[in-house]
Amino acid sequence: MASTYPCGGLKRRRFLGVTAAVAAQAGLPSLVVSAQEPRAAAGKPAVDEKWGIPGPYPGRVVEVRKPDMIRNGVKDREAIGAAVGRGMKELTGADDAVGAWRSFFEPGDVVGIKMNPVGNPLANSSSELMLEVIEGLKAAGVRTKDVVAFERYRDEFVGARMHEALPEGVAWAGLGVEYNNHQTDLKGVDDLKNPNLDHVTGYDPDEFVVMELVGKGEDPRDDRTRRSHLGLLVTRRVNKIVLLPVLKDHGSAGVTGALKNMSHGLVNNVCRTHSSPDANVCNQFIPQVVAHPIIRKKCVLQIMDGVRGVYQGGPGGSRLEWTWENNALLFATDPVAMDHVLWRAIDAKRKEKGLPPVGACGRLGLDPLKTEGFDFRQPQHIALAARLGLGVFDFEPPKGGGASIDHRIINIA
User: Fold this and answer.
1) CA distance 175 to 268
2) 3-class SS of residue 170
3) Strands 246-250, 299-310: parallel, antiparallel or unpaired by DSSP?
4) For residue 177, which phi and psi values (nearest 5 degrees)?
5) Residue 283: which of 24, 58, 27, 18 has the closest Cα?
6) Residue 257, C-beta contacts closer than 8 angstroms, at least 6 positions apart
7) Cβ-Cβ contacts under 8 Å for 269 (sequence gap 6 or more)
8) pLDDT at position 148, please?
9) pLDDT recorded at residue 38
10) Is the N-terminal amide bond of 54 cis, ω within 30° of 0?
């Protein structure tokens, strides 16, 4: 299967820089973000501070395993729904699934569901999972008209046929239209004839992250080449987001889970992070984008689709033989902890298949299949994100004290 992404297979606001102390601690170059406080959505107040990443359950990752969520390539929505209910209860400690959903959401919330269709058909967020999330939101009192499922590119959402699975009254959107090599355009989707397409699309001219990195072939004199703007849907339409990343590897980031689903799925101008084999900077870009205050406050819940896992070639260049029926869903408010669990799972499967760990792979490292597209993969973005306070990285309590990952595995029949 050919890779969808060439880059993946291979003045009215104040601005503020991340402090030198934080940048030095994380080992990252300087960053500038817009200093605007997260705006209200549809009359709702800004998200309460308790929801800011890593959220109310730092370090906690609940993995629910159910053997019949997928069999012989066919997914079972009832089984996926049972796993969602159990996972939400275990994550929150609520007495039942409805109570768990109500601990995150309430009537009046406007909620985005961030899908991940880029690896379609082998490594995309399941429509069955999306539908169960919608049911959970409705149970919490969120109105159907206040739910919007979305992805960075409209054409990928449509290509995975996710829009066809949505119930009546639920809108969907792409922040932009389609993938292209020149990603600085702020224009959104112009299709007013489609009543189900949410038209709060495009990118916010006032909310962006600056990183002194210009993509291959771009003009460094153009300031837009250094900016990644947040989607208008993220900044102005919704006040909370549920994200459905997928358990898979990635040729440049090493693995691509909760963190990369935000950093590369909620902003534009992302191809510059891996635009050529020798200029891979996912390690720096991913934590810095996720640290944007709007993203931190609005991304309140992560449910990782591990029904099918991808251990090689992900997301767009995978083959069926590089996937496995994993039959698991993972739940967290902490994307760092979730992604470290993901990293371990991918490396364990690669070891089983006789492949080196992702952190050792690259054109200048280990490349037994002769498929590596970058000098080295960079899963260390997960540890760097922890240093920016975005979550818990360590599986064992660190020396001198500190939090560690609480990975709970729940097996249900």
Assistant:
1) 9
2) coil
3) parallel
4) -85, -55
5) 27
6) 245, 246, 247, 248, 304, 335, 338, 339, 342, 343
7) 183, 184, 215, 224, 225, 227, 228, 229
8) 97
9) 47
10) yes
Region 386-393 average pLDDT: 97
**Helix (H, G, I), strand (E, B), or coil: what is residue 83?**
helix
Report the chain's terminal Cα–Cα distance, integer Å. 34
Average model confidence (pLDDT) across the chain: 88
Distance of CA 13 to the CA centre of its chain: 27
**Which residue has 């990644």 as its token pair?**
228
pTM, two decimal places: 0.90
CA 282 to chain centre: 14
Percent of the chain with pLDDT over 70: 88
Residues 155-213 have pLDDT tens digits of: 999 999 999 999 999 999 999 888 877 788 888 877 766 777 888 889 999 999 999 99
Which residue in 282, 280, 275, 267 sits closest to 382, CA to CA?
A: 282
Backbone region of residue 54 per phi and psi (left: phi > 0; alpha: psi in -120 to 50; beta: other values): alpha
Q: Is the peptide bond before 167 cis (omega within 30 degrees of 0)?
A: no
Q: DSSP string spanning 121-143? A: TTBS--HHHHHHHHHHHHHTT--
The bridge status of strand 70-71 relative to strand 406-411 is: unpaired
The tokens for 318 are 């995978």
3-state SS assignment for residue 323: strand
- Those residues with Cβ within 8 angstroms of residue 307's Cβ, 6 or more apart along the chain or in another chain: 69, 70, 75, 80, 126, 129, 325, 326, 327, 328, 329
CB 287 within 8 A of CB 28: yes
| Residue labelled with tokens 């990293």 | 343
Top-ranked range on mean pLDDT: pick from 137-141, 182-186, 315-319: 137-141
